[in-house]
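REQUEST FORM: STRUCTURE PREDICTION
Request ID: SP-0412
Submitted by: Lab K.M.
Chain count: 1
Length (residues): 125
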Amino acid sequence: MLFQIKKLSFISCIETVPGSGSQYIRSSGTKGRLLAFDKLTHSCLVKLPSGFKKIFSYYSFAFIDPLSISFHKKRRNGKAGFWRSFGRKPIVRGVAMNAVDHPHGGRTKSIKTPLTPWGKVTKLK
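STATUS: Completed
RESULT:
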């Protein structure tokens, strides 16, 4: 909780309302600074990485020190289909498809002008 952290320390992954989950300063390497406490209103003043100052609840959770994901440093894009394991699919150009699959498809080496699905010219060379 924020009231247990020392003043002027670096923090990350702050939640706005207690129990809502982290919503601010979530990227790896980013950090905010805990500037002040207000015991009357049970709130804390935090300086965000953008320089903007925002008030958070006294009882919100936060991580001490910036969030670092060590996997980002060790990751190597060493093989074809590397991003498939992360849920990304390859993007195929419309020109490389068949005419049934895409309005720009079906041409050999894309020599003809691109057409709309209704057969009108979209770009002029």
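NOTES: Residues 33 and 63 are 11 Å apart (CA to CA).
Reviewed by: T.R.
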